[in-house]
Amino acid sequence: MQKIVGQDVKGSRVLVTGAAGFIGFHLVRQLCESGAEVLGYDNVNDYYYISLKEARLKELEELENFTFIKADLEDQEAMEQAFADFQPVFVIHLAAQAGVRYSIDQPRAYLNSNLVGFLNILECCRHNKIKHLVFASSSSVYGANTKMPFSESDKVDHPVSLYGATKKSNELMAHSYAHLYDIPCTGLRFFTVYGPWGRPDMAYFKFANKIMQGEAIDVYNHGDMKRDFTYIDDIVDGIIRSTEHIPSGNDTSGVDKGEAYNSNAPYRIYNIGNNNPENLMDMIGYLEEALGKKAEVNMLPMQAGDVPSTYANIDTLSSDTGYKPTTDLKTGLKKFAVWYSEFYR
Q1: Are 28 and 38 in contact (CB under 8 A)?
Q2: SS3 (DSSP) at 218
Q3: Does a cis peptide bond (omega within 30 degrees of 0) precede residue 149?
Q4: Helix, coil or strand: residue 277
Q5: Alpha carbon distance 156, 74 (integer Å)
Q6: Which residue among 17, 85, 158, 222 has the highest number of C-beta atoms inside a 10 angstrom radius?
């Protein structure tokens, strides 16, 4: 087990990329409320509704201890200037080109944002001596793996989407910088995050849109799918806990075994999920109940790049940080439905 150094993020300067995004919005709000000074960095691209991103930013801009820079991750000059001016103590890197299916149609967007952009983050962390870089990985790194639940000790060498491949690449890039320059780095493999202010490209949000408009929803693999749905408040709690636990490299036991999460560098990988996979059809039923309207369903075969199940083993994160998700899917979808009804009324 690695030694973990505690560091309170409250009152610190924290740079959060992807601040206009779903997870970034909730994280920034929680950090600011806890007393941190936060610089948000986001290019506010049109991958999904810009109006939703702008609405999130409008909420954040009311916070006194939040400032914002609109720029691309691959804009090296803008990134370097942001670090130089703000001098962050912690960096939480959430920005990326997201989406499994979009990576099939627009592969170069993933190269620019997820690889070139991440290199810029690493270089700025290297030259500015930050205390801890926490970055977003994804459950998509598990790719063709079938052993459940997915564990950080599993090898992840068979991606089934370019998006998943770029996230595995981020983990490898971060490890090299942790080893070469002694930069503490923690990667978080997110599992199907949902909740208010969510991403419209996610299944539950798309289903809500179509149900309320009286349109049929497309259900792939004929509904035989499971996802480890994780409510946004639980995710934010896990991110903050991870940020405050800084790894120091003193464990070589996992290197020869090919384990991603053990290293002699100041580096850590965690699954962050709900540890409770739910059937897709059950999720649809909860959503129908929360919205008060039944769905018309089109059953379709599996899509390219998708996987039938995700299931997070969160023992390592729980042991190291005390992380324990508390929101079940039915309750979380009710909270989403309340927000959805108010936001789109």
Answers
A1: yes
A2: strand
A3: yes
A4: coil
A5: 26
A6: 17
List, for residues 19-55, the tens digit of each pLDDT value. 999 999 999 999 999 999 999 999 999 999 999 999 9
Catalytic residue among 41, 102, 110, 163: 163
CA distance 81 to 115: 20
The 3-state DSSP class for residue 272 equals: strand
- How far lies 99's CA from each of 133, 175, 180, 338, in Å? 23, 24, 31, 25
- Sign for the CA dihedral angle at 274, 231, 36, 123 comes to positive
Residue 59: C-alpha distances to residues 1, 27, 52, 75, 213 (Å): 41, 13, 11, 26, 27
Q: Looking at this protein, which amino acid is placed at residue 253? A: S
Q: How far apart are CA 20 and CA 64, in angstroms?
A: 17
β-partners of residue 42 are 70
Please write the tens of the pLDDT for every residue from 144-182.
898 889 899 999 999 988 999 999 999 999 999 999 999
- pLDDT-based confidence at residue 260 (cuts at 50, 70, 90): low
CA distance 19 to 13: 14
Residue type, 331: T
The tokens describing 99, both together, are: 């989406």
| Backbone φ and ψ of 274, nearest 5° | -105, -10
Which residue has 């798309």 as its token pair?
206
- CA 160 to chain centroid, in Å, comes to 18
Secondary structure in 3-state letters for 162-184 = HHHHHHHHHHHHHHHHHHHHCCC
CA distance 300 to 298: 6
Q: Residue 100, by phi and psi: left (phi above 0), alpha (psi -120 to 50) or beta? A: alpha
| Helix boundaries (H) for the chain | 22-33, 50-60, 76-86, 102-105, 107-110, 117-128, 162-181, 203-213, 232-243, 280-291, 315-321, 329-343
Contact call for residues 87 and 13 (beta carbons, < 8 A)? yes
Torsion of CA 326, 209, 343, 192, to 10 degrees: 30
pLDDT over 70 percentage in the chain? 94
